[in-house]
Amino acid sequence: MTNIQFPVYSISISGCLSWQLHALNNEGNEGNQSLTRRYYIIQKGMNEPESVNGVSGDMLKHVQAEHLHRVAIQDELALSEGGKQFHPDRIGYDLEKGLPIFTDADTDLATKTNQVIQRCTMSDLEGFMVTVKGGQTLKRESVIEFGAVVGLPTLVKTQSYFHAKYGTDNPTPYNVQVSSGLYATVLNIEAFRIGYNPHTFNYSIDITERKKRLDALLKSVLYTYLQPNGAKRNTNLPHPDHFEGVITVSTRRCPAPMISSLETSYIRQIHSLADTLNNLNGADTVLCFDFNNIAQFAEQIETLIERAQPWESDNAEAIE
Kindly report the CA angle at 265 between 307 and 252, in degrees rounded to 5? Predict the structure, then answer.
């Protein structure tokens, strides 16, 4: 593959993931029985909905944010005090503690958003919402979006296993639900929004800093699939044994196509969509990076880090 660089407007991942013997996402307990998260899947040709095991997008987003935090610390990216502490309010923590974030000149949403983007990588990429002095709501939508990871009908199985917790008194019996199978996963990254201030229609940080944040975000996505943190990992560490799919990248104002692996022909359809979008918008509008296993997925992320460049435009983006 050539090392030609390209601007990145958006990135999508559509994949089929295999996790064996995991209990990553539970909804609680009923008596001594843990309850795994379930989703209803309704597909063409089904006579009735099917309940399948899954992991919420909220959990994957939290895992990704954890990895991003570690990368940002290591790479010495700009972080607010809340960002450094991995506080859920991020820049909101600094404001609540009365830390010097805004000057007397920062009176409107445009200048305040500018300060937040410059000061905090976590707030820029992961989003936040906080009410500031004067009743203004300062918010930012997340640059990265996750769908729930859902089991492919007939290709995922959940079973309850008996355990006993031993202590100084009598052992406590309990049951844990453990799942294995193939799962559909999707995510989208609005890469053009990294460092973008929608109130001023320009970027609050320079292209060098935006490149660092884009690379950190891509690393965090890779680490999310390499180490999917969640429940019961001390004794039910998942066996990740397969991951295949397509990473799509759009280099112009065009969505990077994404189709769930719940559709068996998703890879072929994604390539067909890429061809159509390239015909409509020009060659190389959409680039496809296929992977057939976990190692190839890592290689494709490495390729993106080497070749992908931050989006540049003097024209307004219709967002938020």
Answer: 35
